[in-house]
Each structure stands twice: as C-alpha cells, then as structure tokens.
Amino acid sequence: MATPHIACEPGDIAPLVLMPGDPKRAERIARTRMEGARLVSDVRGIGAWTGTIDGVPMTAMASGMGVPSLSIYATELFTQFGVERICRVGTCGGISRKVAVKDVVVASAAHTNSSVATIDVPGVSLSLTASFDMLRGAVDAARASGKRVHVGPVYTSDLFYSSRMDIVPALDKLGTLGVEMEAAGLFACALAAGKEAAAVLTVSDHLFDGSGDLTSEERESLFQDSLEAAIGALKA
To answer: Which residue numbers delimit the Nucleoside phosphorylase domain (predicted)?
Structure first.
C-alpha cells in the first residue's frame, strides 16, 4: 500500500536499503552498481530504485537533507514496506584530527542537537547507535578494500549553517569523528521500529585544517568507497 511519500507496493521495496541524501546519487547507485534496477517510486523527485547488488535484492532511495526528511522515509520504509535494514551512505565534515579528507568513517553512534534523542523519553537523552552486525560488516568491507577507515561517534546537526562553532572543540575532545545531518534520525527510527541501521560516511572536508576543495571526480570516487562499505553493512 502506498504512503503519502512512497508510491509503490511493499513487495517493490527490498528488505535492504541504501540511503544517500541526494536523489541523483540514488539513481547513480542504481545505474552503475545494480543489476535489473527499476524505478518503483518517484514521489517529490525522491526515486526508489530496486534491483540486485552482488545477487542480493536491494533498494536505493534518497533521504533528502536533515533528520526530519530522513525520518519520514525511514519510518515509512521500516513500518509499511517490510524493510529490515537501512544504511545511510554519504559524506561528513571531519572534526577529529585523527581523520583526513578521503577517509571512511563508520558511525558507531550519533550525538545530536535534534529532539529525536529526547522526545520519546522526557528527561532522558537516548543513546542513538548503529546496529552491531551492520557496523561490523561495514568496517570489514572498508578494511578489506584497503581504505583508511575510522569507527566512532559522529555529530548529527540540525543546522548546516550554525554559529555554534564553540562546541566543536568539546566534540573533538570526546572523540567525535565528524559532523553530518542524518545519522541520528536514522538510528532513532530503526530503534523505534525494532529494525537495523548503520551510517557510512566519507570525509569530504575538515573543520580544522580547511581541506576539502575536491573536484567532482574526486567526490564521486570517494562516494564509491563509502558505497562499497555500506553494501557490506547491508549484507552482513
């Protein structure tokens, strides 16, 4: 049964979903990495493509930007379409000096200023974490490819343009690897639905050293590194 945001039947969506932020990137995954890919939904320009990757049925569908957008799609996928696992695949800005541009980050948890960490249990800030088996699968896949991979928490911000840069040193001191805008929402949706989630990110720029002036070709190459790790997470 279709929802307001996904116009297809439950069987049209695979149990395993790759979720970049950008709809064009979801289409690129389908066209370059999927076999037998078919467009099963395209509401509001958010295409859902289903096919197989390495013989395993998967769907590639974008989340849009930010926790609110991702939460709509992830909730509907988990609760209405029989999805068991979603892996966010995208980029982040580096915070920790241990990470460098072009490295892969596998998020073990997501700190956040979003209300998703507090809204369900007043007075408690939930620990929003990735699923262990998916986490292990992503790390194994990234390491097997020879890429530099880091495992640790990221910071999910509700604001892309924020004046609160004063919190960054504290996040760094607490071992936060990078900043992005969706992982906490995905982890929260998975925990609420009793399903599994992970986030694999490529460091596209760095908050401290100012690096990250990459060409479009370099960005696509970087994305491929995180994509293969995300596929490993879903297959684990």
So the answer is: 16-234
Whole-Å CA distances, 28 to 57, 98, 221: 17, 31, 13
CA distance linking residue 29 with residue 61, whole number of Å: 9
Residues near 230 by beta carbon (within 8 Å), at least 6 away in sequence: 18, 87, 88, 89, 138, 198, 200
Task: State residue 171's pLDDT score.
Answer: 95
Q: Which residues are catalytic?
A: 205
Cβ contacts of 212 within 8 Å, gap of 6 or more: 93, 101, 203, 204, 205, 206
Q: Per-10-residue mean pLDDT for the chain, 236 residues long?
A: 84 97 93 96 92 98 96 96 97 94 95 92 92 97 91 95 83 96 98 97 87 68 86 97
With 0.90 as the threshold, say if the pTM is over it: yes
SS3 76: helix
Residue 17: φ, ψ to 5°:
-125, 130
What does the alpha-carbon distance between residue 142 and residue 136 come to, in Å, rounded to a whole number?
10
CATH 3.40.50.1580 correct for 10-235? yes
Tell me how far apart the alpha carbons of residues 121 and 204 are, in angstroms, rounded to a whole number: 34
Tokens 């994509």 correspond to what residue?
Answer: 227
Place of tokens 């509001």: 44
Structure tokens at 13: 């969506």
